[in-house]
Design brief:
This protein is mostly beta strands and 423 residues long. The chain has one domain (39-184, 233-422): Neuraminidase (6 Propeller), CATH 2.120.10.10. The protein has 1 helix and 28 strands. The chain has one helix at residues 10-22; strands spanning 36-45, 53-61, 67-74, 84-91, 102-106, 114-121, 128-134, 143-149, 160-161, 171-173, 176-177, 179-180, 192-193, 198-200, 220-222, 240-246, 252-258, 266-272, 279-286, 292-298, 306-312, 324-331, 338-342, 345-351, 358-365, 374-391, 400-407, 415-422. A 7-stranded antiparallel sheet has the order 1-28-27-26-25-24-23. The protein has a 5-stranded mixed sheet with strand order 9-8-7-6-11, with no helix packed on it. Strands 10, 12, 16, 17 and 18 form a 5-stranded antiparallel sheet that branches. The termini are far apart. Residues 58-182, 237-386 form the Sialidase domain. Belongs to the glycosyl hydrolase 33 family.
Length: 423
């Protein structure tokens, strides 16, 4: 008797992949009803503008409230090396429509060209910085460049080589966005919110912890950045921080910082690779108490196939090994993921699988990334790198975030898609 043949639809195929990824005890993700999807826009797809592939999405909000999306436009192949454009699109209506693609950088026909990269906004000067590497794969000494826009992405400076400032570090920033620290205490203390625009440290408040120094009591800090909190006191007032990884002899996770609004940069925290301990591509946020929380790609699967986490209590000067842990809830197939602190809620995005780049998912945390209470499956099929952003809006009490991610039917790298979510 012949066996029964069932038609294999795309939905069935991806469901089987997810079941195999999670194992028999947890073969699906439970959908959270806390998110509402509003619209989806394909920002770039394979072949657009004569470009072979688009990869490594970055997205953030700008000082004027618009959104900016960036990607590597890989000219001739999907290879990480090879020549590229730096592609940009912007939205001025909260992600509903987008400008035409502009190529803001061109490495000509470099055999190992530019690689994104990280974007960071200085909320004091209103400048926007994009940091990227050049020839990170094939050169003995790679180069790190920064470009700056002072008009919300309408024009950009010529690339500035900052490799010497970083001591020759083979630095691959991000991918994702940097932060500008804003809390008023170097170690950070729980705060009691006093208005939508600012918060006040309360020594006697049952909602917070006692502040070590009496001069902090009642100090108000203006809340101005969707990415973090700008420090009000030295030594890290307005510090810009970008973290990434290095290759070669300095392999590991590294951070760089600027304390003069992007005029100069220097190395700060580092976590060098040792055997199975191999932190890689990363994204960080500043928690509401001033602690920097970092989520890193766990390249060698130390302890688990999940995210490696680290905390810094000194503005990313250091990461103590005692403050490194593994978040087993955040299963991960070894990929770049995103982390966002938006309106005192933390969001995380990645392909939620232990082994396959499938099932793009957004998770939500109500305690600054310590635990995860809800999730929203975005796309069950092939999914790759992702980047989250808050979406500024004046529409009453509604709150929105945006997700740019690599999405495809056969491969994750067929398109970069933007999804707007009500949260």
């Amino acid at each position: 008797m012949a066996g029964l043949a069932l038609p294999v639809t795309k939905e069935l195929f991806y469901s089987i992949l997810i079941m195999l990824s999670f194992g028999p005890k947890k073969c699906y993700l439970q959908r959270s009803e806390e998110f509402g999807s509003l619209n989806e826009v394909v920002l770039w797809k394979r072949g657009d503008h004569g470009v072979s592939d688009y990869r490594i999405p970055l997205i953030t909000s700008l000082p004027d409230g618009s959104l900016i999306a960036l990607a590597e436009a890989r000219k001739h192949s999907s290879s990480d090396s090879g020549p590229k454009f730096l592609a940009m699109r912007q939205s001025r209506d909260q992600g509903v429509t987008w400008t035409n693609t502009t190529f803001i950088e061109d490495d000509q026909e470099a055999t190992d060209g530019l690689n994104l990269g990280s974007i960071v906004v200085d909320e004091i000067t209103k400048s926007v910085f994009v940091m990227y590497s050049f020839c990170i794969h094939k050169c003995k000494y790679a180069t790190t460049y920064v470009i700056r826009s002072d008009d919300n992405g309408q024009s950009w400076t010529m690339p500035k080589n900052i490799s010497q400032q970083l001591g020759g570090l083979q630095f691959a920033p991000g991918p994702g966005y940097g932060i500008q620290v804003e809390c008023s205490s170097p170690k950070g203390y729980q705060v009691e919110y006093s208005s939508p625009k600012c918060y006040q440290v309360e020594c006697s408040s049952p909602k917070g912890y006692q502040v070590e120094y009496s001069s902090y009591k009642g100090y108000q800090v203006e809340y101005s950045s969707p990415k973090g909190y700008q420090k009000a006191l030295d030594p890290w007032k307005g510090r810009l921080i970008i973290c990434g990884h290095s290759i070669g002899k300095t392999e590991g996770l590294y951070c760089v910082a600027s304390d003069d609004h992007g005029n100069s940069w220097h190395r700060t925290a580092e976590l060098p690779r040792t055997n199975q301990f191999d932190p890689n591509e990363c994204q960080m946020i500043e928690q509401s108490d001033g602690v920097v929380l970092l989520s890193a790609r766990n390249q060698q699967h130390e302890e688990c196939r999940c995210r490696m986490m680290a905390k810094s209590y000194d503005g990313c000067e250091t990461f103590a090994h005692s403050d490194i842990y593994y978040d087993h809830t955040l299963i991960d197939p070894t990929v770049a993921a995103s982390l966002l602190n938006w309106k005192y809620t933390v969001y995380f995005s990645n392909p939620a699988s232990r082994t396959l780049r499938v099932n793009m998912t957004v998770r939500v945390s109500g305690d600054m990334g310590e635990t995860w209470k809800g999730l929203r499956p975005i796309w069950q099929g092939p999914s790759g790198y992702s980047c989250l952003s808050g979406i500024p809006t004046s529409q009453g009490n509604d709150s929105y975030i945006g997700l740019a991610f690599e999405k495809g039917l056969i491969s994750p790298y067929e398109s970069i898609t933007f999804v707007k979510l009500r949260v």
